[in-house]
Amino acid sequence: MKARNRIIQPEFFQNKILSNMKTHARLLFIGLWQLADREGLLLNNPDLIKGFLFPYEKVSVENLLKSLASKGFIVLYSVQEIAYIWIPKFKIHQPIHKHETQSVIPLPDDVIKCQDNVDTCSDNVDTCPAPITSSSSSSFTSTKSGKPDDIPYEEIISYLNEKTGKNFQQDKETNRKWVRLRWQDGYRVPDFKRVVDNKCPDWLNDEENDKYLQPSTLFGNKFEGYLNQRSAQAPPEKTADQLYVEREHEAQRKAGLRE
Question: 75 pairs with which residues across the strands?
């Protein structure tokens, strides 16, 4: 999750329903635009959202999200037990830069249908369903093409298996969801591989810590810390001259010419 530059339309201040909501709810609504991807989608993580938008204030982001959803300004839903947020009229009011990264957040059928009809929704989108849960399969579809998402689960999990000698299944949702969460935060394949490379020397073949070499730990909430950990540096390779001098000294020691 990362913040982006967005705009505030004049109509925002003329909305009667918004004007009757708490000030923090209105500020949260604006903040969600900055955190949403180009499709108006974002991860529903109240603690993370609070850290971005209200780092110094005591507010309940979870309750504010529910209040916005109750008025139809956002849609709360979940896929495979991971919670997300959709802002229905986001693409109507926000100009999207052509180079902005494509969304990788899945949408269940109920939200896709509402998304297709968003132009007919009222200003507060009260005809859109909220909240929504889905028991859809682990092969998610993108909002535009309907094709499975393009997160390289196999490459990432296979690399983990190769380095640890383990056999985590790339098609299991319990493994995929951690990769997907970090991918949505903006991390890419080299970052996942670096985390594996950084932690293997610490935990591999250690009876107490070897169990932590798994997707839920490596790609969990401490991912950024593991990524920026300084790995142990291998000693620099010796030059040909250094090796020659060492051989000469060793020969002299064997001949009794050098202590």
Answer: 86
Q: Are residues 34 and 60 in the same domain?
A: yes
User: What is the Cα–Cα distance from 72 to 124, expressed in whole angstroms?
Assistant: 5
pTM of the model: 0.48
Q: Which two tokens stand for residue 199?
A: 């932690």
DSSP state, residue 86: E
Helices 153-164 and 189-203, axial angle in degrees (round to 10): 20
Segment 85-117, tens digit of pLDDT = 988 888 777 777 777 787 888 876 655 555 555
Under DSSP, the state recorded for 212 is G
- Do 79 and 159 fall into the same domain? no
Cβ neighbours around 137 below 10 Å, total: 11
- Residue-wise pLDDT for 110-143, tens only, equals 555 555 555 544 444 444 444 444 433 334 443 3
Q: How many domains does the chain have?
A: 2
**Is 145 contained in some domain?**
no
User: Residue 165: which residues within 8 A CB-CB, separation 6 or more?
Assistant: none
Whether the CA torsion 94, 177, 135, 83 is positive or negative: it is negative
Which of 130, 131, 148 minimizes the C-alpha distance to 139? 148
d(CA 165, CA 125): 51
User: Residue 51: which H helix or E strand, with range?
Assistant: helix 46-53
Statement to judge: residues 113 and 183 lie in one domain: no
Residue 5, domain member (yes or no) = no
Q: Which domain holds residue 104?
A: 10-134
